[in-house]
Amino acid sequence: MALEHALLVALTERPGTGLELTRRFDRSIGLFWQATHQQVYRTLGRMERDGWVQVETAGRPGSQRGRGEKRYVVAPAGADALRSWLAEPQPTEQFRSALTVRLRGASYGDRAAVLDDVRTHLTEHAGRLAGYEAMCARDYPDPAALSGAALDQYLVLRGGIGLERFWVDWLTECLAAHDAAPDAARDPAAPDAAAPDPTERTPR
Questions:
Q1: Alpha-carbon distance 170 to 174, whole Å?
Q2: Which InterPro entries did the record assign (predicted)?
């Protein structure tokens, strides 16, 4: 997936100016596919040159005569590109997390620093979870009545809620396990004795 596809989805849902799009992107697709505002504007310019979007210039109250904001709409070529991309199967995304690798190696360095980082991540994920749940309750009070695009948007938001719940539950479990571990009072910088790796098979 490229940023172009995310922007095509957002603009198909509702055309808008670059500023409107960046704000909407932050609150919706940007929750799952992150991009800076500079990247969004740069990609919109490339999509305009490629004929994927068209620009309408509309004045706004208080603007100077003859000047207005660019309003982006999906062009026929962009709609075709989006349909083609939606029809193509996508490879399964591989899970990657630097924090999980740091946790795995915590015994060989400053475990306290790693656990402090776990607490920071837990706070951030808990905040996102609360925001997603509030958004879900506000925007989708009757999920059983949803269909079409609204149902798709709701299900993606539910996926975000499930993902954040995973992080909150797992990070909470990690901290509780370390607090309860027999060696909790030991110097966190001292490496543990080598332990067998349950993920590696022992040849017979």
A1: 6
A2: Tscrpt_reg_PadR_C, Tscrpt_reg_PadR_N, WH-like_DNA-bd_sf, WH_DNA-bd_sf
